[in-house]
Structure formats: structure tokens, C-alpha cells
Amino acid sequence: MSALVRQETVLADDTRLRDRLVFGDEDAFSELYERFSALVYTVAVRVTRDERAAEDVAQEVFLSVWQRPLAFDPAKGSLRGWLAMLAHRRAVDLVRREETHRRSTQDGKLSAEALSRGDPVGDQVEDADATRRLRLALGTLPEHLHTVISLAYLQGRTYREVAAELGLPEGTAKSRLREGLRRLTVALSGNHAHGPEAQ
């Protein structure tokens, strides 16, 4: 198979996966996570040099894709490349936010350097609010769902690894991940002006 044919096959697969996500297909989300969670986490940890921060970035990336799958345009490249770019941007934003916060805490105000670079303070506040809402939403999950979501999305494990660690059948781990994701989406949508109304 030529490189061009392989590339066309990958883009066709990426498009189908994106289209399934648009229709809220939870199996498609599980497939997305299985294929790319290690990549997203690795990119994030290389930038942040902090496992917990990388876990936060990975969680934000996957929830963002679940909520807005049409942001991915197969005409502009592969899903793998897009997710790596998204993880890199989110990680860089997180590092910048933390650095700005450190400086502003030390100085009692935003640093002049951050302001001269044109760092959007409003975006920093909005991103911090999104992370806060995400943590609050996680806190609303029952313990059995919180545990599997934390292992999968915060610690970068596959659903098979989650199942093995918790002594669960793989199907149970997968269904708990789906239910946890569904509840997170509802909780976040209910607390976000741009999301659909929670039922």
C-alpha cells in the first residue's frame, strides 16, 4: 500500500470517527480515547513536565472533542496530528497561566511582562473557570464512576487497564466510563451558558 493510499485511508477513518462523535456515539468516544489517550498525555507531560497538569490537559482535550467534534476538520490533516496540536496548545496555555499566576501572586498584580506580551487575561480567567467547573462536575459523580473516570482520564489508563486494576469485567469498566462521561457532559452543560440545557 502506497503512502498516499495509507494517508487517504487514515483521513477516511478519521472522518468517520468524527461523524460518529457528532451524533454522540459513545463507542466512538471510547475508540478515540483508546487510540489517542497515550499520545495526548505524552504531549501534555512533555510541555508541562508535571503529571497532574498533564492529566488536567488530557481531560480538557477529550471533553472538548466530545463537546465540539466538528472543530476537527479532516481536510486540514489527521485526527492524530490535530489532537497532538490541541494537547500542545492546552499544555502551553496551562504553563503560561501558572507562570502568570505565580508572578501575579509574588507581585500582587499581573506582571508587566505578561501584559506587554498581550496575554489575554480574560482567557486565563475563563480557562481557570473551565478547570474549576470540570473539577466540580467530577465531584458530583458517584464514587464508582468517579474512580473509573479518574483512572482513565486523569491517569491515562485504557478501559482494559481500568478493568484489570479494579477487578471489573471489561464491559463493566467501559459502560462506567460511558456513563461517567455522559454525566460529566450533562453537569458541564448545565453549568455552561453555551451548552444544552441539562435534562
UniProtKB/TrEMBL annotation:
SUPFAM superfamilies: Sigma2 domain of RNA polymerase sigma factors, Sigma3 and sigma4 domains of RNA polymerase sigma factors. Residues 132-184 form the RNA polymerase sigma factor 70 region 4 type domain. It comes from the Bacteria. Keywords: Sigma factor, Transcription, Transcription regulation. Signal peptide: none annotated. GO terms for molecular function: DNA binding; sigma factor activity. Gene3D superfamilies: 1.10.1740.10, Winged helix-like DNA-binding domain superfamily/Winged helix DNA-binding domain. Pfam families: Sigma70_r2, Sigma70_r4_2. InterPro entries: RNA_pol_sigma-70-like, RNA_pol_sigma-70_dom, RNA_pol_sigma70_r2, RNA_pol_sigma70_r4_t2, RNA_pol_sigma_r2, RNA_pol_sigma_r3/r4-like, WH-like_DNA-bd_sf. Residues 32-98 form the RNA polymerase sigma-70 region domain. GO terms for biological process: DNA-templated transcription initiation. Residues 98-124 are annotated as: Disordered. Belongs to the sigma-70 factor family. ECF subfamily. This is RNA polymerase sigma-70 factor (ECF subfamily). The lineage of its organism: Bacteria, Bacillati, Actinomycetota, Actinomycetes, Micromonosporales.
